[in-house]
Design goal:
single chain; Uridine Diphospho-n-acetylenolpyruvylglucosamine Reductase, domain 2; Uridine Diphospho-n-acetylenolpyruvylglucosamine Reductase, domain 3; Uridine Diphospho-n-acetylenolpyruvylglucosamine Reductase, domain 1; five-stranded antiparallel beta sheet; four-stranded mixed beta sheet; 23% helix; binds flavin-adenine dinucleotide
Length: 337
């Protein structure tokens, strides 16, 4: 069943907590609801809004926001080792992770506590602590708003990359994800080689699923602001990928600069946007209602009362300071409307 709301206040539908409105919001449950919406009265401007943790409204949205409400989780197959699970788009991501951990299923534990709907998780291929959601995904069903039918993509067809997928490119403005299918497994495969994870896991008594989840939740809570307390969208910027020659030149001036190889691209190097912002002297810096978080420079925060326009203006300022100091362009990870 679909429900339509007009002139809707978006403050509780975006993790930045900015005060903006949308002309119309349509909640849908099934592909048939979407078929009805797009065949009867095709919206001229629309955007899929999940839980709003990666969306910055910079002004009132004069179009139709389309939001899923379907949230079923179904086990499709369990052969004793592998468990195939289908999860609908509006299901809370972390509830799914908690369920998998409670049931002894490995594959998504490192992605604990990422605020997301399941339907949005593949869009930017959410990742943290050395894991990416693509590694657990087997298939995705989406509604194609041009063909007016449900299309199924296998994982290898989704063009996943670092914070990337086909849904941000070829299928942007076309696909509305209905459900994601995952393959989880029972053989333990702890992935502890990132950041403080190993230390926190050992402090809890070793690499069990529960300890890994608890460790990651604790590390995240100590480093990242809770959007319910301080509006934010997690990492505001992507880590920039630069030519190897640019990285080598920067390393001469900044030998401690974090830098990482780019898989399958020997000529490029990934830099840490948070480090660049920090070294530009902006960690904790604040202008009016908006600032850089004082513990994690990659996170911009709404100290209360900010408009989306103010956040955008501040983000542009951060980019220009980093560019002037390092000659490197950093780009938003957040969807800016
Ligand atoms: C405190 C905090 C910490 C975070 N940490 C991380 C992290 O560690 N790693 C990480 O990768 N991200 C992180 N993020 C970003 C965020 O969690 C992800 O981008 C998440 O997937 C957003 O989910 P959402 O449902 O809130 O998406 P929304 O903001 O609602 O939408 C995000 C994008 O997905 C599209 N979309 C949403 N639902 C659908 C659908 N059903 N079909 C098609 N397109 C859809 C939207 O159109 C938009 O382009 C963090 C955010 C916050 C606030």
């Amino acid at each position: 069943m679909k429900r339509t709301y007009n002139n809707i206040n978006l403050q509780n539908r975006n993790s930045f907590g900015v005060i903006e409105q949308a002309d119309r919001l349509v909640e849908f449950e099934t592909a048939d609801d979407l078929k009805a919406l797009f065949s009867e009265e095709r919206p001229s401007k629309w955007y899929v809004l999940g839980a709003g943790n990666n969306t910055l409204f910079t002004q009132s949205y004069n179009g139709t926001l389309i939001s899923p409400t379907c949230s079923a989780r179904t086990t499709l197959n369990d052969d004793g080792e592998y468990v195939d699970v289908r999860v609908e788009a509006a299901h809370d991501w972390d509830e799914f992770v908690a369920w998998s951990v409670d049931n002894g299923l490995w594959g998504v534990e490192n992605l604990s506590a990422i605020p997301s709907s399941v339907g949005a998780a593949p869009v930017q291929n959410i990742g943290a602590y050395g894991a990416e959601v693509k590694d657990a995904i087997t298939a995705i069903d989406y509604f194609d708003t041009n063909k007016l039918e449900v299309v199924r993509l296998k994982c290898e067809e989704c063009q996943f990359g670092y914070r990337e997928s086909i849904f941000k490119h070829k299928l942007r403005g076309v696909a509305i994800i209905l459900a994601v299918e995952f393959r989880l497994h029972r053989t333990p495969t702890p992935n502890l080689g990132y950041g403080d994870v190993i230390r926190e896991v050992e402090a809890r008594g070793g690499a069990t699923l529960r300890n890994i989840r608890e460790a990651i939740c604790a590390i995240r809570a100590s480093k990242l602001p809770d959007p319910k307390v301080l509006g934010n969208a997690g990492s505001f910027f992507k880590n920039p990928i630069v030519d190897k020659s640019v990285a080598e030149q920067l390393l001469q001036s900044y030998p401690d600069m974090p830098h990482y190889p780019v898989p399958n691209d020997a000529n490029s190097v990934k830099l840490a946007a948070g480090w660049l912002i920090d070294k530009s002297g902006l960690k904790g810096y604040r202008e009016g209602h908006v600032g850089v978080h004082n513990r994690q420079a990659l996170v911009l925060v709404n100290h209360g009362g900010a408009t989306g326009g103010e956040v955008l203006h501040f983000a542009e300022f951060v980019c220009s300071v980093v560019h002037n100091k390092f000659g490197v362009d950093i780009c938003p990870e957040v969807n800016i409307l």
